[in-house]
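Box 3.1 A note on notation
Throughout this textbook, protein chains are presented in two layers. The first layer is the amino acid sequence; the second is a token string describing backbone geometry. Keep the layers aligned when reading.
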Amino acid sequence: MSRDLSIYLQADYAWGKTKHIFFTRLVDDNTAQNMKAWMTRGGYMKGWGLGENEGDYTENMLFAEIHRRAPLKGAVLLSQRFRTDFRWIGYDAVFSYRFRYRVMIEKEYKTRSSSIVPYLNAEVFWDSRYASTIVTRVRAIAGTTVVFGPRLAWEGNITYQYDPHYNTENLYALNVILHVFFQKKNKKPPAPAN
């Protein structure tokens, strides 16, 4: 059994209108906005191996994503994501890059004080370290995100991953993720002229 710790710092920007109005969870539960059709995300990740595997894994990664989001009937959200990762893996910091495509479906259930969002997704990877292979990894995830208060959310999921280049070809994992949100405040519109 191996354990890893990863810390992400990222920024998002969303734009465009969707065909249907769709309300989604926000940092502030007292506000709602129409779902934007497109979103970009960029960021940095630092990862370490923990415990008995402490020396086996270290990684620095820059990543960029573009998302296309489409509301469906029944307040279900379908999203597609294309992502590229620029990675420096190991203590020798060997550079590689990979491309990832993910499709995800999710639905939000609101309570008075929180938001619960179960989801399913599937993702395929191509990695420059194994350039002769068209698809180098396949991953499927089922999970739930629970938003508590204006700035925190917990996420738990079960992951299955098939990767013939990894030590464990068929990997099963339980993940617990803490999300901390920071939101830019919008400026108030100017008062109308008399």
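Residues 3-180 form one domain. The longest strand covers residues 3-17.
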